Amino acid sequence: MSEREEKFEKMLQAIQTEYKDTVNKMENLRLEGKTKTVTYKQLMGTKVALQNMLSRYEIYGLLE
Prior knowledge:
- By secondary structure, the protein is mainly alpha-helical.
- It contains two helices and no strands.
């Protein structure tokens, strides 16, 4: 595997991890009834951005 491919894999893994963490934080806030907070809304924005990145990887066949 080339250095570039290794960097890509590392970046992809970081994005996937951040996405899962964001979804978990949102779920915890939802369970606490805090869906109208600024933090929740910021997390929603982050989730959408990460989802968009992962979707692009999928479109180009870079995700299984």
